[in-house]
């Protein structure tokens, strides 16, 4: 049984799938443009390889045995993966071309997309990529209205309306000025800083809405004294002492050596956010967009 991979081949599995779907060896042979005797021989070879019957031959067709049903499911999965492989190889062989339109939220564009897009374009130099930064809600609206090929945003309520695939994980930390009393802590929770003066993003930002939801659940009201439009500005406001800020860890690490700040881990589950790629229908994606989707979500 351990040599099964050497005894089964794709042609046999494909013919077995056809027999299961047609419930008849003759019809399966006609569909696959092959002699019925050849199909029957392939089924016999599968049965010899596994040592168990996969079908029962009957006067008006066949019935699939329980072990045959199991092999059928696995055969479908194998064939599907080979088809994906064929599509991917075709994209590399022919070279995907065209223009891909992407919208992403601030966290994805600042932290992850630059390196991923640069690597993708080294593999697909003929593809042009247009990227626009939007809030998470605007990303979903753009994909809904079919204005773009792919959107990247946080996994928030509303994402379930689209096809979506995990992209990256985004960890949030608290940025505080050096010398602030909280700077002596090793980890913090929302209760530790909910009453502090904060610097935040605009009201439509997913990060702002997340903090407001968590504060409401805690029975607290956030004291946001300054609102800015970028993560860069957010960090600089903390540097000059205007308040504390919750920022993505990778963003904070970019500034830790140049600004007078410290990063504190937040030891609560909401501080781990998932970024996803969203789109309307995979089968309607152009080859270039499908290639980028695969690249971003299989890394």
From TrEMBL:
It holds the Pfam family LysR_substrate. The keyword DNA-binding applies. One of its GO terms (molecular function) is DNA binding. Residues 8-65 form the HTH lysR-type domain. SUPFAM superfamilies: Periplasmic binding protein-like II, Winged helix' DNA-binding domain. Coiled coil: none annotated. Keywords: DNA-binding, Transcription, Transcription regulation. Gene3D superfamilies: 3.40.190.290, Winged helix-like DNA-binding domain superfamily/Winged helix DNA-binding domain. One of its GO terms (cellular component) is cytosol. PANTHER family: HTH-TYPE TRANSCRIPTIONAL REGULATOR YBHD, LYSR FAMILY TRANSCRIPTIONAL REGULATOR. Belongs to the LysR transcriptional regulatory family. This is LysR family transcriptional regulator. It comes from Paraburkholderia antibiotica. The lineage of its organism: Bacteria, Pseudomonadati, Pseudomonadota, Betaproteobacteria, Burkholderiales.
């Amino acid at each position: 049984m351990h040599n099964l991979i050497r005894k089964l081949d794709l042609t046999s599995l494909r013919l077995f799938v056809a027999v299961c779907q047609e419930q008849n060896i003759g019809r399966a042979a006609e569909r696959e443009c092959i002699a019925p005797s050849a199909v029957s021989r392939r089924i016999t070879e599968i049965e010899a390889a596994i040592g168990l019957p996969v079908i029962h031959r009957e006067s008006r067709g066949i019935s699939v045995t329980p072990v045959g049903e199991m092999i059928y499911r696995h055969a479908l999965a194998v064939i599907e993966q080979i088809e994906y492989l064929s599509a991917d190889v075709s994209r590399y062989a022919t070279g995907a071309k065209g223009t891909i339109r992407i919208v992403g939220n601030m966290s994805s564009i600042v932290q992850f997309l630059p390196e991923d897009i640069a690597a993708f374009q080294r593999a697909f130099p003929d593809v042009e990529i247009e990227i626009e930064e939007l809030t998470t809600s605007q990303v979903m609206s753009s994909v809904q209205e079919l204005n773009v090929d792919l959107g990247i945003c946080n996994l928030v309520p509303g994402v379930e309306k689209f096809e979506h695939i995990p992209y990256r994980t985004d960890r949030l930390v608290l940025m505080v000025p050096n010398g602030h009393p909280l700077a002596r802590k090793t980890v913090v929770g929302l209760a530790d800083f909910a009453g502090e003066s904060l610097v935040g993003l605009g009201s439509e930002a997913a990060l702002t809405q997340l903090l407001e939801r968590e504060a409401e659940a805690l029975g607290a009201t956030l004291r946001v004294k300054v609102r800015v439009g970028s993560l860069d500005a957010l960090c600089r406001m903390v540097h000059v002492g205007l308040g504390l800020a919750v920022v993505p860890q990778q963003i904070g690490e970019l500034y830790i050596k140049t600004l007078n700040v410290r990063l504190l881990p937040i030891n609560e589950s909401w501080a781990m956010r998932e970024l996803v790629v969203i789109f309307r229908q995979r089968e309607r994606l152009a080859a270039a967009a499908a290639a980028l989707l695969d690249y971003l979500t299989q890394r």
